[in-house]
Amino acid sequence: MAAALLLSSAAGAQTIYEAAGLIDSDLNGTARYVGMGGAMNALGGDVSVMRSNPAGIGLYRSNDLVFSFGTNTASTSPGTGNDKFRKTSFSFDNAAFVYAFDMGKSPVRFLNFGFNYNKRRNFNRQWRGNWSDGTTQTDLIASMASSGITADGLPGYDPEQFEAADAFVTANPYVGWLPIMGYAAYLINPVTDQAGNFDGMWEGYYPADSFDHVYDMQESGWINDYDFNVSLNVYDRVYLGMTLTAIDVKYQKSSTYTEEIYDGRYYQGGYDLMNTFSTSGSGLGFSIGIIARLTDNLRLGFSFATPTIYWLRDYQESTLSYNVDVMDENGQWVARRGAISPEDEYRNFMGYEYNYRVRTPWKVNVSLGATLLSRLAIGAEYEYQNAAKTSIMYEDGINIDVLNDGYTDEDGILFGGVRQSFGAQHVAKVGGEFRVTPSFSVRAGFNYVTSFMEATAFKYMEASSARTDTEYENVRDRWSVSAGLGYSKNHFYFDLAYQFMKYNSDFYPYDNVNIPAIGLQNREHQALLSVGFRF
């Protein structure tokens, strides 16, 4: 097989679900920050607040160097059985440095500079589920084929478009890759009248009345933040800061969807659709913050993060292998076996490459911190963002209207876009630290994060899309509890933290109004160690 040929086109290759993965954030950072549930935006004095409230770095009065690393175990239990799938990975989560410059008796008591590497998201999961029902992915493939247009602008793809040697690369018009593969694998059929005339409509595999389904996936990757901070301490009463954040994105998912087809008691065969999908790119964000010391023991914090701009590249490869019984022109059932992958007119294997931009919404955070008797520190905060303000754009920065604003069907009903599928997200954090001795501390925290994904959200597959992965997942609210220990001696300090996080999600192998959601129970266990030196 020849080397892969990349395709860069605007053939409906993007969906709202890639943008969804960029909006959210994990609770991660130093072990002290995680142990206190991240509720440190008003308390400050920890490198992990560098982006969430840049003013928190202004509370430093000495230099700080810290490294954090640990393990992350993600488990997923599909509602289709009693199986639980676990995946454990080692993670280097944080590395940071703060330089505190003493300005003497001037109004600006300290001018501080900071750098922080932080793993904002850790994609680390695998699971497998199986179920049986009366729905089939071939109906979605047929619907895509019926929604296409011919070279003459007539509705519905023509079989000749699928049979053309350049079917995967033609741009007049673009032809969806999944309908091409479904046609080649005998999974969809043109609908004809009694005279054998084709009117542009397609149907899924027939005859069939029940289907066994299996879905298997693994994902990995990360979103890393690189924060550059400048902060001020004004009269030991007001702290100001700003942070410029560079972002690195890398995500990969491998999945296999299997469908076994039955007509009554008779087995008609089946197929496997294998996809490898990846997203890589970079981003840039900016945030500002302020902390006011209202009294010696009470602090109020406020921060604002501007929209983050991402420059991204998606890449996908796919193969559909099939073994189905079909009726030939003589009315005889014959077995058809084979495999189909996208290829150019010279039969070179192809994957698609798609470049685009995403702009996330602005974010605001209000926080409160209190210290008592020099032993107890308590923090609480609230964060808000409206994910419906997210914009997905072409590489040149022009909005992709069908993804942002949705599309209207023949009944005038609006579906599918960011504005209909995303909503507001609310984050509440509370945490505390108690200093048992001058060298030893204990910590605890709690987080609750609402989902910005509407329950009615779905993956809209354009007829001309080069995408062949039809599955999607709607994440619900999540919560986490954490605890930690801290020990310091001379200039060194060592912190430990444990975090348990839980959320449920609804998985759909493809969009079909008759298919029930597959409920997933997701759990994550994180153990984290930070080693630091203050001087």
What does this entry look like structurally?
This protein is mainly beta and 535 residues long. Helices cover 8% and strands 56% of the residues. It has 7 helices and 23 strands. The strands form 3 sheets. A 14-stranded antiparallel beta barrel has the order 2-3-4-7-8-9-10-14-15-19-20-21-22-23. A two-stranded antiparallel ribbon has the order 5-6. It has a two-stranded antiparallel ribbon with strand order 17-18. Strand 21 and strand 22 form a beta hairpin. The longest helix is centred in the first third of the chain and has 11 residues, at 137-147. The radius of gyration is 27 Å and the shape is elongated. The mean pLDDT is 92.
Structural class: mainly beta
Strand order of the largest sheet: 2-3-4-7-8-9-10-14-15-19-20-21-22-23
Low-confidence stretches: none
Can you write the helix and strand succession as a string? EHHEEEHHHEEEEEEEEEEEEHEEHEEEEE
Q: Give the termini separation.
A: 60 Å
The helix content, as a percent range, equals under 10%
Mean pLDDT: 92
Main beta sheet, described?
14 strands, antiparallel, barrel
Strand content: over 45%
The radius of gyration is 27 Å
Query: Counting H and I runs of at least 4 residues, what is the number of helices?
Result: 7
**What's the count of strands?**
23
Describe how the helices and strands are arranged.
Layout: E1 5-8, H1 16-23, H2 31-35, E2 64-78, E3 85-102, E4 108-133, H3 137-147, H4 159-163, H5 177-184, E5 189-192, E6 198-203, E7 210-234, E8 238-263, E9 266-295, E10 298-305, E11 309-327, E12 333-340, E13 350-359, E14 363-372, E15 376-386, E16 391-394, H6 401-404, E17 407-408, E18 414-415, H7 418-421, E19 424-435, E20 440-449, E21 472-489, E22 492-508, E23 518-534
Parallel strand pairs: 1-13
Antiparallel strand pairs: 2-3, 2-23, 3-4, 4-7, 5-6, 7-8, 8-9, 9-10, 9-11, 10-14, 11-12, 11-13, 13-16, 14-15, 15-19, 17-18, 19-20, 20-21, 21-22, 22-23
Helix pairs in contact: 3-5
